[in-house]
């Protein structure tokens, strides 16, 4: 405003003064012509007419002659406020025209006030635009700070806010991607905690049963010793389950796959679950081919079989038959009971998380399928009524290069 306003004010002041001076000079030349014309025509100069025509001017006319002629028209302005322009002819006529500078100064002030008003308006517009622009920048920054604070407090929902400013939009996109990653990490942590609690419950249940058997047979040292040894095995299995959970969390299960003798593993499962089935008045039966070996992890296979037996105990009925066989380059362990089976509307979704038809947690079968997939196998429902599940495992020597096995986590 200063760089443009001050030069403009000086220029306007000079322009108005020059215009007033030129106007006086024009009046002086015009009046000189009129006086010369009147002398040529031998006509007297009409002072009243000059006063009417140049009402706001002070006129002085001097003409040579005998005697010389001097004419004044109008009121002479103060010397300090006087502007004068003159003209002279070769015939000895001299004309001076004067006016008061007050009107010129008034016009200059009016223009200066106009310039000041425009400058103030421009300044107000600039301040307004600056405020709008600053709010346009600061509000998104405050919003981004709130989003970052929300992420730090554990609320990992993407905001999807965009502000029309490229740099801020890039920051918002980065925060949204971070929120998505944090949300996935939190979801995996929650699933891991849920899976861990569910997988630890089964060996703890077996350990509890063994301890109950020990308490019930406190007067029979042989049974106490046998059940104590079984309890130690259960504790070791509990430790193995914890190791398996940690390995799964680190995604190292495939690298730990080894040859597992199924007979010993299934015999151990029958020893663990036999008392529970006997108390329920039901039987466990092992059938099929003996001496099979499969690729996997002992803890993972045991956990899958244990989940299937527990599921049959709680939701099935009659005798539970565990059948082992070798089919199509796969080792198959089938667990079937004689109960009512799985409803038709529930069968297609039986491996989905939180899906249960009998008031359970809905986590056992999804976790069992995830463990089977982690060992390079798969768990399938082969018959809904009565229920029969098949656990397919890799044969020993199968590298898995031409085999794609997937299971939900």
TrEMBL record:
Alphabetized CDD domains for the sequence: HATPase, HisKA
Domain Histidine kinase: 195-397
UniProt domain HAMP: residue ranges: 135-187
Topology in the lipid bilayer: Multi-pass membrane protein
Membrane spanning stretches: 111-132
Pfam families membership: DraK_HK_N, HATPase_c, HisKA
Signal peptide: none
EC number: 2.7.13.3
Keywords: ATP-binding, Cell membrane, Hydrolase, Kinase, Magnesium, Manganese, Membrane, Nucleotide-binding, Phosphoprotein, Protein phosphatase, Stress response, Transferase, Transmembrane, Transmembrane helix, Two-component regulatory system, Virulence
Superkingdom of origin organism: Bacteria
Name of the protein in its database record: Signal transduction histidine-protein kinase/phosphatase MprB
Stored SMART domains: HATPase_c (SM00387), HisKA (SM00388)
Molecular functions per Gene Ontology: ATP binding
Stretches assigned to coiled coil: none
Cofactor(s) it depends on: Mg(2+); Mn(2+)
Subcellular localization, as worded in the UniProt entry: Cell membrane
Catalytic activity: ATP + protein L-histidine = ADP + protein N-phospho-L-histidine
């Amino acid at each position: 405003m200063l760089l443009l306003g001050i030069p403009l004010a000086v220029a306007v002041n000079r322009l108005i003064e020059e215009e007033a001076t030129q106007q006086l000079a024009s009046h002086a030349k015009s009046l000189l012509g009129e006086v010369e014309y009147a002398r040529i025509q031998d006509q007297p100069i009409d002072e009243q007419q000059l006063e009417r025509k140049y009402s706001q001017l002070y006129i002085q006319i001097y003409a040579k002659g005998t005697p010389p002629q001097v004419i004044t028209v109008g009121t002479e302005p103060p010397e300090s406020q006087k502007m004068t322009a003159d003209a002279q002819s070769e015939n000895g006529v001299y004309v001076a025209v004067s006016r008061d500078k007050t009107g010129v100064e008034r016009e200059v002030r009016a223009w200066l006030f106009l310039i000041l008003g425009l400058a103030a308006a421009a300044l107000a517009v600039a301040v307004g635009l600056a405020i709008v622009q600053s709010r346009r920048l600061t509000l998104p920054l405050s919003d981004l700070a709130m989003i970052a604070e929300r992420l730090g407090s554990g609320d990992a929902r993407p905001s999807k806010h965009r502000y029309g400013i490229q740099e801020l939009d890039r920051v918002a996109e980065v925060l949204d991607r971070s929120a998505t990653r944090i949300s996935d990490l939190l979801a995996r942590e929650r699933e891991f905690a849920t899976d861990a609690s569910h997988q630890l419950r089964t060996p703890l249940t077996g350990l509890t049963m063994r301890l109950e058997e020990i308490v019930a047979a406190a007067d029979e040292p042989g049974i106490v010793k046998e059940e104590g040894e079984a309890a130690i095995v259960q504790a070791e299995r509990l430790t193995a389950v914890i190791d398996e959970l940690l390995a799964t969390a680190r995604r190292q299960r495939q690298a730990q796959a080894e040859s597992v003798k199924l007979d010993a593993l299934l015999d151990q499962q029958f020893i663990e679950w036999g008392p529970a089935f006997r108390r329920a008045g039901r039987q466990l039966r092992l059938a099929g081919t003996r001496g099979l070996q499969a690729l996997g992890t002992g803890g993972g296979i045991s956990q899958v079989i244990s989940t299937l037996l527990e599921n049959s105990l709680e939701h099935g009925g009659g005798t539970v038959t565990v059948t082992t066989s070798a089919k199509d380059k796969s080792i198959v362990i089938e667990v079937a009971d004689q109960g009512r089976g799985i409803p038709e509307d529930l069968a297609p979704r039986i491996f989905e998380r939180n899906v249960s038809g009998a008031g359970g947690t809905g986590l056992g079968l999804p976790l069992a399928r995830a463990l089977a997939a982690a060992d390079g196998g798969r768990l399938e429902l082969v018959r809904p009524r009565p229920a029969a599940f098949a656990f397919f495992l890799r044969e020993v020597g199968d590298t898995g290069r031409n085999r794609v096995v997937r299971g939900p986590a």
